[in-house]
Amino acid sequence: MALISFTGSPHGGSHKLLPEWNRQPRITPTTIIDHSIVGSALGAWYYFRDTTGIESHFIVRGARSGSADGHIWQLMDTGRQADANLNANAFAISIETEDNGDPDDFPWSRAQLASLRWLHAKLRAVHSTIPRRRCPSPRGGGLGYHTMWGAPSAWTPVAGKLLALDTLVPTPDGLLALREIRVGATVFDERGEPCKVTATYDDLPERAWRIMFDDGLEVLAGGEHQWVTITRGQRKGYFRRDRPRDRHRGPRPDSYPQDWARWGKVRNTDEIASGILASDGAYQHTIPVAGRLRLGERELAVDPYLLGVWLGDGGERDGVITAGFDPDDLMASDAEFIARQFIRAGYELGAWQPRYGHRTLTLRALGVERQLRELGVLGNKHAPQDYLVASADQRLALLQGLMDTDGSNCSGRGVEFTSKSEALADAVVWLASSLGQRVRKSKGEARLRGVSFGPKYRVTWASTVPCFRMPRKAARLHGLGNSSSETLPSVRSQSRQIVRCEPVPIQPMRCLTVDSPNSMYVITDRCLPTHNTCPGKPVRVRQWEQILLPAFLRQEVNDLGTFEGFSGNGRESFEAAVRHAVDRIMSQGLTGDADGAIRAWARQLDDLHGPASNTADVGERVRNQLRAGFGGVHPGATGDQVRPSQAFIIATLLDIQSKLEQLLSQPAQTADQSGETTT
Amino acid sequence: MDELLDAAPTERRGDVLPADHPAANLAAPEGDCIAHIPVAVKDAVAAVHGNREPPDTPIGPGELV
Question: What is the pLDDT, as a whole number, of residue B24?
Fold first, then answer.
């Protein structure tokens, strides 16, 4: 049986056993799993009791319990199974913690943290089968938190925040459906940098929405799926420069800041759907475009620019390219430029054939046809996958080849690609989007002299990259190092606005957790930035990783300073705890770093009494004053002079430290006696 | 040990909650966790019991570790 003694726990504890506290199957605990109730301790306890089927070994009360904050309830024998951890029930001790119903944003209180640290140490002391480590796998062994393997996962059936399973996600291997993404896969963050998927989540959301953007992009997302958006007010505040008070801020920026993800705010789909329009009638939420995706350079059989040219104006079943030709100005013709590109890429050219009354020429580069056949594009025009996931320069070259042949600079501010091939149009959508462009794709009817030739596809965007290489087209592209007086594309064309959210029937969905700095990743072939889901960001997960886990791993040192005998009320109890700790130190010697032990203990005291007990900053004069004014554990002190204050705590620590120094001054003797080193 | 058993709560599901209470028959899935149960249900369960703190189970010091 393992009902623990709460003597020494910083905020006390009591036993409120469930009916099945000792009737569940026996277990050998190897794992401690911290949970958050999503509700009150009272509600959880009565639910466990009245609606049996699930249990937890402990509940640590929280701030909503007022003066009972940090108080621990034990509900189950720790040698018996509590069903709160799905597949981990047979080896895990579960600790529920009270929250306000929102564990993502409501942190553990200082009292809860102190009690959790104490309880972790206590459980490891009681159950030597629990190793001192972060739990390395869902099979257990160490300290963990409930959703550390995702949600749902081996430890929980609870769902995360979700996107439709067929949502495409850019990866180094191309676009994959969300359902195909596994833990460990590489995706891209909003800056275009690669990041790793650390968890996946599947479930049915309570609500599902179709989010529509002003570029025609549509995404299905759960109500709790998160986005980082910039509001209309933020946009106006950032870009406005026409007021006198804006003068010191410099000229109007021509793009969103690089760190827009930190500038924006995380909002879920429900929030966005409830306020599409700002008070002035404009669209409220904007998501800037992602940066160009950083993909590795590939070895490509055919120069990507030349492949793009062939895809645009090449023969379907041969390597012949048809290009414009002006017999009066040979050097300025498209055919001349393309021929030079072939020669520069190392090809020899075959015979030129004038066609259509010398208005065009057909070009043939020797060896290209064989390479195209090997690529599998002859008779099946498309951009091969290797080219779509090549480096940014290679992708830009392919885009330039396509745009130099089937593209145009239509209005001075925008560019356009038109093709009867939807596959090529989709390739341009991806190439431009992966280079940080916001594109639109539309479908129309191809007509020539009143005769329909079937559907055609247009891809348009305001380009911020040199998407043409051919001089006559590149010269018309604004502001990109040429002599054009045009300005760069508008800020609006570098972002998407959410124009509508409409409810859709719920369906199975999935979301990811990624390790990118801003917890974001991009989705769809348009590279739309979205926020990942828990457990990456919830405040209690951060607390677990930054406070509870390090404390658990330091337990060997902390054992020296455990508050055995301290109930948390009154000076006498505190003194007793200090005496106990000193006795342990003096009698057992040290198994870790002495100074570290003192500091670790000081940190525990900080949690209980507030910051400032930094022994390193206390000088000898202060130390003497403290000793004179506060007796603490000093034999000469009288009870009336002692207050459980910061000064008293510091004096106590100093006293212990001096005893440690005495102990450490005789390491050889101690080692000889014990047969082990003591530091 | 017998004393301990006697002191432990013995009510089971349905013994306390009214049969028509929305939470009375809401059994959680096998191995589920309390986080999966809606806050409103948990609050309703506590409210049925007057939001009173459950009684301590008396345990002798010798039984503790």
Answer: 53
CB A77 within 8 A of CB A2: yes
- Rounded to an integer, what is the distance from CA A672 to the centroid of its chain? 52
pLDDT bucket at A643, cuts 50 / 70 / 90: very low
Residue the block writes with tokens 């770093």: A593
Chain A residues in contact with B32 by the CB 8 A cut-off are 53-54, 83-84, 86, 157
* Chain A (33-72) residues lying within 8 Å, Cβ to Cβ, of chain B: 35-40, 42-54, 56
Mean predicted confidence (pLDDT) in A131-155: 86
CA A490 to chain CA centroid, nearest Å = 30
Contact B34 A85 (CB under 8 A): no
Residue pLDDT, tens place only, A374-394: 999 988 899 999 999 999 999
C-alpha torsion sign, points A256, A289, A187, A510: positive
- Environment class of A503 (CB within 10 Å of its CB; exposed 0-12, middle 13-18, buried 19+): exposed
pLDDT bucket at A533, cuts 50 / 70 / 90: low
Q: Cα A321–A324–A325 angle (5° rounding)?
A: 115
Closest to B35 (Cβ–Cβ): which among A16, A36, A87? A36
Backbone φ and ψ of A180, nearest 5°:
-90, -5
- Kindly tell me the sign of the dihedral angle through the C-alpha atoms of A157, A150, A506, A101: positive
Using the beta-carbon criterion (under 8 Å), do A3 and B59 form an inter-chain contact?
yes
The arithmetic mean of pLDDT across residues A207-215, rounded, is 89
Within 8 A of B14 by CB-CB distance, chain A residues are 50
A364 strand-pairing partners: A320
Q: Do A46 and B59 touch (CB under 8 A)?
A: no
Q: pLDDT-derived band of residue A65, with 50, 70 and 90 as boundaries?
A: very high
Of B28, B39, B57, the CB nearest to A54: B28
Q: For residue A19, which amino acid is it?
A: P
Contact B42 A18 (CB under 8 A): no
What is the average pLDDT across B47-59?
88
Option in A5, A21, A94 nearest B65 (CB): A5
Neighbouring residues of A324: CB distance < 8 A, sequence distance ≥ 6: A333, A334, A335, A359, A360
Helices (H), A259-327: 260-263, 269-273, 304-313
Nearest to A22 by CA among B62, B10, B28, B15: B10
Determine whether the interchain pair B31/A89 forms a contact, defined as Cβ–Cβ distance below 8 Å: yes
pLDDT digits (tens, 9 = 90+) for A399-447: 999 999 999 886 556 899 999 999 999 999 999 999 999 999 998 888 8
Nearest CA in chain A to B36: A158
Q: Smallest Cβ distance to B33: which of A14, A35, A101? A: A35
What ipTM was assigned to the predicted interfaces of this complex?
0.77
Average pLDDT over all residues of chain A: 78
Please report the DSSP string for B6-25 in residue order.
HHS----TTTSS-TTSTTTT
Q: From CA A430, how far away is CA A461, in angstroms rounded?
A: 12
Burial call A472-496: b when 16+ CB within 10 Å, e when fewer: ebbebbbeeeeeeeeebbebebbbb
| Residue A4 C-alpha, separation from nearest chain B C-alpha, in angstroms | 5
In the block, residue with structure tokens 């309570």: A206
Chain B: residue nearest A96 by CA? B34
Query: Is A205 touching B (CB cutoff 8 A)?
Result: no
Residue A169: which of A424, A545, A520 has the closest Cα?
A: A520
User: Half-sphere exposure of A449 toward its Cβ, with a 13 Å CA cutoff?
Assistant: 0
